[in-house]
Amino acid sequence: MAGSEDQKFSLQEVLDTFKLCLSENKEVYLEQYVAGWRGLVKFLNSLGSVFGFISKDAVSKIQILVNYMNGENASHYATVQSMVKYELDNNLVDVNKKGSHPESGCRTLLRLHRALRWLELFLDRLRTSTEDSKTSALCAEAYNESLAQHHPWMIRKAAGMAFLVLPGRQTFFEVMNVGPPEQVVAKLGEALPLISEVYQITEDLYAQHNMLDLP
Ligand SMILES: CCCCCCCC/C=C\CCCCCCCC(=O)N[C@@H](COP(=O)(O)O)[C@H](O)/C=C/CCCCCCCCCCCCC
């Protein structure tokens, strides 16, 4: 798995995985969810080693979920809904404070879920940005509105420094491998509703089970 993060990023590929994320009855397939994140990590890796600490954290969370998906209880880790039910029914989630299940699927996925909100906000800003927009500012705004609220000061500082070396909008669009800027904008417009729907379904599920603040 780790090696696949080094390959070339394609926005279309990420879009395809998020398209495949939802079942007919709107359950979120874990395999596709994780595949979407793997694709995004490829992009992050292509931005350079400054982003290594972020990539490392994302990869370790992906790996925790992959281990459950391939483990002895794999059948319970087909969708986010089945994972939540299984872990809650079997008291496998540290609901109030870290205890015997510090790496439950539920708390691990929650971290990626919060990052998905950042992604949604960031992509929307990119989509509506102009040629002279600064990606670092767009990224920082999206981060401050979402993930930052869950991160301690040190992480916020480190993330803020990393954002400063983000490439400009033009380079960013090129790395997406979609085509000219108009096509990137169109593709982002296609991707956003899918990402939003996956985010909202997960958010509602976690809210319903009072799990939005898992330690
Ligand atoms: C379509 C292409 C354009 C966008 C491509 C974006 C690619 C982004 C790829 C990955 C995003 C990283 C996801 C980070 C997950 C962070 C999860 C988290 O919150 N972890 C913290 C809490 O975990 P526990 O300690 O409770 O286990 C952990 O402390 C975090 C450590 C690392 C710092 C995370 C900073 C996140 C910044 C997100 C912005 C990424 C900037 C990418 C720039 C394109």
Give me the secondary-structure category: mainly alpha
The CATH class designation is Mainly Alpha
Mean pLDDT: 94
**Tally of discrete structural domains:** 1
Spell out the helices and strands N to C. Answer: HHHHHHHHH
State Rg: 17 Å
Give me a quick take on this structure.
With 215 residues, the chain is mainly alpha-helical. The protein is built from nine helices and no strands. Helix 1 runs antiparallel to helix 2 (30-46), helix 1 runs parallel beside helix 9 (181-208) and helix 3 (52-70) crosses helix 5.
Structure description:
The chain is mainly alpha-helical and 215 residues long. The chain is built from 9 helices and no strands. It has helices at 11-19, 30-46, 52-70, 80-89, 105-127, 135-145, 153-164, 169-175, 181-208. Helix 1 runs antiparallel to helix 2 (30-46), helix 3 (52-70) packs across helix 5 (105-127) and helix 5 (105-127) packs across helix 6 (135-145). The radius of gyration is 17 Å and the shape is globular. It starts with 10 loop residues before the first helix and ends in a 7-residue tail after the last helix. The relative contact order is 0.15. The structure holds ligand LTTT4AJV.
Walk me through the topology.
Layout: H1 11-19, H2 30-46, H3 52-70, H4 80-89, H5 105-127, H6 135-145, H7 153-164, H8 169-175, H9 181-208
This protein binds ligand LTTT4AJV.
Main location: membrane
Keywords: Cell membrane, Cytoplasm, Endosome, Golgi apparatus, Lipid transport, Lipid-binding, Membrane, Nucleus, Transport
Pfam family, one: GLTP
